[in-house]
Amino acid sequence: MSANRPAAVVVLAAGEGTRMKSATPKVLHELCGRSLVGHVLAAARALEPENLVVVVGHAREQVTAHLAESDPTVRTAVQAEQNGTGHAVRMALEELGGGIDGTVVVVCGDTPLLSGETLRRLAATHDGDGNAVTVLTAEVPDATGYGRIVRDGASGAVTAIVEHKDATESQRAIREINSGVFAFDGQLLADALGKVRTDNSQGEEYLTDVLGILREAGHRVGASVSADHREIAGINNRVQLAAARRTLNDRLLERAMLAGVTVIDPASTWVDVTVTFEQDAIVHPGTQLQGATHLAEGAEVGPNCRLKDTRVGAGARVDTTVANSAEVGPEAVVGPFAYLRPGTRLGLKAKIGTYVETKNSTIGEGTKIPHLSYVGDATIGDHSNIGAASVFVNYDGQEKHHTTVGSHCRTGSDNMFVAPVTVGDGAYTAAGSVITKDVPPGSLAVARGQQRNIEGWVARKRPGSAAAKAAEAASREPEGEA
Ligand code: UD1
Ligand code: CA
Known about the structure:
Elements: E1 8-13, E2 30-31, E3 34-35, H1 36-45, E4 51-56, H2 60-70, E5 75-78, H3 85-95, E6 103-108, H4 116-129, E7 133-139, E8 148-151, E9 158-162, H5 169-172, E10 176-185, H6 186-193, H7 209-216, E11 221-225, H8 238-258, E12 262-263, E13 269-271, E14 276-277, E15 282-283, E16 287-290, E17 294-295, E18 300-301, E19 306-308, E20 311-312, E21 317-318, E22 321-324, E23 327-328, E24 333-334, E25 338-340, E26 345-346, E27 351-363, E28 368-380, E29 385-386, E30 391-393, E31 403-405, E32 410-411, E33 416-418, E34 421-423, E35 428-429, E36 434-435, E37 444-445, H9 457-461, H10 466-476
Parallel strand pairs: 1-4, 1-6, 4-5, 7-11, 12-15, 13-16, 14-17, 15-18, 16-19, 17-20, 18-21, 19-22, 20-23, 21-24, 22-25, 23-26, 24-27, 25-27, 26-27, 27-28, 28-31, 29-32, 30-33, 31-34, 33-36, 35-37
Antiparallel strand pairs: 2-3, 6-10, 7-10, 8-9
Uridine-diphosphate-N-acetylglucosamine (UD1) binds next to strand 1, helix 3 and strand 10.
């Protein structure tokens, strides 16, 4: 058990988030591959709480479904009507069977930049100082909308939190704000919540009033000032959401760069929290890396790539490509303008060129599909070359079928491989072939109409045309001249 392990962390996520102006509940908006509430839960987990409760209310079916999928072990407490943050915490304590012994940490579901480290420091201060409540605060350049921390002029002790809407002119000048994150003594919290009133401008039960109530009852009230005010930014609208995304993205890229990744243009590079890199990976501008994407040592990605859940092998090069659930082998070359769909697996030094789409296909070592092709539901061996403009015809209108091409094959341009079909090792196919039957190893398959030339057709059918004149001039040219 880690030190300062709280009895519970309560995440407030019942509010509607009207200022988002969205059909999606606020806490489900996304940044860097996780929902707002998902980020908060990740930070909360760093405390290893005995109980983790999310208070849901507005659009609770949607929020609960999201939690069940993304973090199935969290408990939820329902706040049917959003009567304020104090009321929300009351609902959480009820879910936990009333008052709870030990520390209860409360965080808002809309502060995605909050780190586990900051929460740990808050819990440690709270326990170390023996406080009844410890509030995480910060000095911010613009305190508009936040609750203000009111301190005693003489002692500097925190006396109360006043909501922006309820604050006087002089209180509004205070730049130290309530982050919405608290550590409480569980029993004292339960008692104080019973005394919170609703005679404020919003007619709500404010959690922030607990602080004044506990202080007046003679309990120790403390504050922990956050070093980085950006970390506690609450997201209320989409401007703040974009700013938080930018901040988190910068943080992730900074970490990657310090670990030896070259990011040419951090401003146009976007990564999810779940993306991983090895040393000397290079990311070019205009690139989005999502989900479980991993760039191995020396892999070079971009410009203009969107890779999701894709592993790029050591020294591979991926340019102007969209990839989803694909595996790019070491030193493989992909793009520009390639589309790797789920189940694509490229071997060592394989090449996928321009305007090539692949799906559910294993492509062997050194095999090349350089131009204008679709390869779906296929297995291709090593060191084969698939001619330009080929299609692996995998769909008969009802079912998908598999194509196998062996190693060291040379298939001609403009081939259709009508699955199910197999081309044996070392086989060739002629340009323009429609391959419907298996090709034995080492054979040449020719599957196209025979060419027939009808001499003099243009002179007879298109007399006097530019084509006819050009043909006539050509027939007059003496032998040997070009
Ligand atoms: C709150 C704080 C304010 C603080 C700010 C920090 C109160 C009264 N005010 O203000 O001091 O500076 O956060 O970001 O606590 N929620 C519920 N049920 C409710 C109301 C809210 O679960 O009945 C949840 C919301 O979903 C949200 C969080 O509590 O995640 C905060 O609510 P919000 O309305 O954003 O509070 P602020 O006005 O930002
Ligand atoms: Ca807020």
